[in-house]
């Protein structure tokens, strides 16, 4: 970016080019600084809005009205699933392998594998709520909503 020095003839032309370059670089530098200042202002506004939203969802006042949970009930709740890493994966493989061996060795499974799996699934799944059945006609078809018969009668000639 230094000033080129070729000769006396091109001295004025090269000076003009050099000045133009300097002006361009100063403009670029000014715009970068103004943009960075605008970014900082925008970040401050975002953090303020997040804090306001957090205040809106503050549920600490509800804790006064909720019943207390004892320590024994807290321990009965399952621990949240943590991220899977190599050690946890290995532990999971070992524990599930032991469980599979227990299932394979169980006499009920050896006698009737499909039946015991079905029975296990029936006991583990929550009961299904039956929906009330729709009324049916004498011939077994579902009742239809009454359609307007006025149009059909008026079309007869």
TrEMBL record:
Residues 111-157 are annotated as: Disordered. The keyword Cell wall biogenesis/degradation does not apply. It comes from the Eukaryota. The keyword Nucleus applies. GO terms for cellular component: 90S preribosome; nucleolus; preribosome, small subunit precursor. It is found in: Nucleus, Nucleolus. Keywords: Nucleus. Residues 133-150 have a biased composition (Basic residues). One of its GO terms (biological process) is maturation of SSU-rRNA from tricistronic rRNA transcript (SSU-rRNA, 5.8S rRNA, LSU-rRNA). Belongs to the SLX9 family. PANTHER family: PROTEIN FAM207A, RIBOSOME BIOGENESIS PROTEIN SLX9 HOMOLOG. This is Ribosome biogenesis protein slx9-like.
